[in-house]
Design a protein that fits this description.
Layout: E1 28-29, H1 31-38, H2 50-59, E2 74-77, H3 84-100, E3 107-110, E4 122-123, E5 133-135, E6 141-143, H4 148-156, E7 173-177, E8 180-184, E9 193-195, H5 202-205, E10 210-212, E11 216-217, E12 221-223, E13 228-229, E14 234-235, E15 238-239, H6 240-247, H7 257-263, H8 275-294, E16 298-299, H9 301-317, H10 326-329, E17 353-357, H11 364-373
Parallel strand pairs: 1-17, 2-3, 15-16
Antiparallel strand pairs: 3-14, 4-7, 5-6, 7-8, 9-10, 11-14, 12-13, 12-17
The structure holds arginine.
C-alpha cells in the first residue's frame, strides 16, 4: 500500500489501483486474510473520508440494482463504539434514523476498523431484522427457513421466543464483541412491520402475511484500500420483488404462492392458468400497496431497473465502467421486460466495496465466542 500516492478526486475517475489483488465474487473473507492481502496502512481515522469510501463501495456493488442513489448514502460514525452497550445503541440509532423518514434515506453505520491484534466485532445476523425459523421434529419449519441456524444459536444463548411462536417472530441481534456473544432483542419501538393486504383481494389479508419495512444488511465487510470494517450495517429501501417474488415466494422460504393463488380464485393444479405468474403479480401488488399505505418507501422492479439503466448511461458518459453481476441485477420477475436485460456486465470487484465474510459460527473466533457464551 503506497502511502504517498497522489490523492485523485475519487468521484472523477476510476479509482482502483492497477495492482489491486483479485477479489473473487463469491469468496467469503475472514478480516484477517483480507488484511494480509490488502495491507492497509496504519492510517489515522481522521485521514479517511468515510462518507466517500462508503458511497463508492455502494457504487461498486456489482449485485445491487439500487446503486443509482449511491451519492445519497449517509454515514453514522460508530468507529469509537467501545462497549457492548455503545454498539447496540448505535444499531438501534440506525434503525431509528432509517425509520424516521420511512426508509427514504440510506444509511451505513461504521464500527471500529479491523485490527489484527484485537478480537473482532461482528454481527451474526444477516440483517438487523429477520424472522425466526423453528424446525419441527417432522421436518416442518415455522417461520423463515433461512434463519433456522441463527434462531437455534439465539435460543442457545438464552433467547426466549414468544410464548406463542409464530411465522414472524423478530430475532434478537447477536453481537460478537471481545471474544463473547451478546444478545439483545430489538426494542419494539424500533421494529416497523407492514401487514400484507391487497386493495382488491381481501383473501390475501386473511393469510396473515407481513414483512419488516427496512432491510439492514449487517453481515458484510466494508473494505477500502485504507481500512477494513467487518461491522458496517447498511440500509436502504425494498424493491417489492425482494419480498413478493423471493422471501414470501421461494419454495425454500415462505412458499406462499399456492395460498395466494387460492386467495385470488385460481386452482394451483392448473398450470395453463399461469397461477404462479398471476399469484406473483398479485403478491407484488399487495406488498407495494401495503408499504405505500403505511408510508414506507418501496419501488417495483420496473422503476428500479429504469433507474439502474439511467445510472449505467450516466456512468458511461463519465467514462466509468459499470461492473455488475447480471443474474443479480435482473429482477426475479419481468426480466426481459427491463432495459438491463440487454446489457452485459463484467462481475469485477473493485475497492472500496462490500465483501462476503466467513459465516461467523464457522470461524475459529466465532466458535470460541460461542463456547464461551453458552
Ligand atoms: N434481498 C434482501 C431481502 O429481501 C435485502 C437485501 C438488500 N436490499 C435492499 N433493497 N437494500 O431481505
Amino acid at each position: 500500500m503506497n502511502l504517498n500516492k497522489p490523492t485523485a478526486c475519487p468521484y472523477s475517475t476510476q479509482t482502483s489501483r492497477t495492482d489491486q489483488p483479485e477479489l473473487p465474487l463469491e469468496k467469503r473473507w475472514s478480516a484477517d486474510e483480507l488484511c494480509k492481502q490488502l495491507q492497509p496502512p496504519i492510517s489515522s481515522a481522521a485521514a479517511i473520508d468515510l462518507q466517500k469510501d462508503a458511497q463508492l463501495a455502494w457504487r461498486n456493488s456489482v449485485r445491487c440494482s439500487g446503486r443509482a442513489r449511491w451519492r445519497s448514502l449517509r454515514v453514522i460514525d460508530a468507529r469509537s463504539a467501545n462497549s457492548v452497550e455503545e454498539s447496540f445503541d448505535a444499531l438501534f440509532e440506525h434503525l431509528k434514523r432509517a425509520d424516521a423518514n420511512r426508509s427514504a434515506e440510506s444509511f451505513i453505520t461504521v464500527f471500529p476498523e479491523f485490527n489484527p491484534d484485537q478480537a473482532e466485532t461482528r454481527i451474526w445476523n444477516h440483517q438487523l431484522m429477520r424472522y425466526a425459523g423453528y424446525s419441527g421434529s417432522n421436518g416442518s419449519v415455522l417461520g423463515d427457513p433461512m434463519n433456522i441456524r441463527l434462531t437455534q444459536i439465539a435460543i442457545d444463548l438464552g433467547w426466549q421466543p414468544p410464548h406463542q411462536r409464530s411465522r414472524f417472530d423478530i430475532l434478537p441481534i447477536i453481537l460478537q464483541f471481545r471474544g463473547k456473544l451478546h444478545l439483545r432483542p430489538i426494542p419494539t419501538e424500533y421494529v416497523a412491520e407492514v401487514a400484507i393486504r391487497h386493495p382488491e383481494y381481501p383473501g390475501i389479508e386473511s393469510l396473515g402475511l407481513r414483512w419488516y419495512t427496512i432491510p439492514v444488511v449487517s453481515d458484510m465487510l466494508f473494505a477500502s484500500e485504507q481500512a477494513i470494517y467487518p461491522t458496517a450495517p447498511f440500509s436502504g429501501h425494498y424493491v417489492s420483488t425482494e419480498i413478493a417474488a423471493r422471501n414470501l415466494a421461494d419454495l425454500k422460504r415462505y412458499n406462499q404462492l399456492p395460498q395466494i393463488a387460492s386467495a385470488i380464485g385460481l386452482d394451483p393444479s392448473k398450470h395453463a392458468q399461469f397461477w404462479i405468474d398471476r399469484a406473483l403479480v398479485a403478491l407484488n401488488e399487495a406488498v407495494l400497496w401495503s408499504f405505500e399505505q403505511a408510508g414506507y418507501r418501496i419501488v417495483d422492479q420496473h422503476t428500479v431497473s429504469a433507474e439502474f439503466a439511467s445510472f449505467c448511461n450516466k456512468e458511461d458518459r463519465n467514462e466509468r465502467i459499470v461492473h455488475g453481476d447480471w443474474p443479480w441485477l435482473i429482477p426475479p420477475m419481468s426480466g426481459a421486460s427491463t432495459p438491463i436485460f440487454f446489457r452485459s456486465f463484467e462481475p469485477k470487484i473493485e475497492l472500496p466495496n462490500f465483501l462476503y465474510q466467513t459465516v461467523p459460527w464457522n470461524t475459529p473466533s466465532g466458535q470460541a465466542a460461542l463456547a464461551a457464551s453458552t
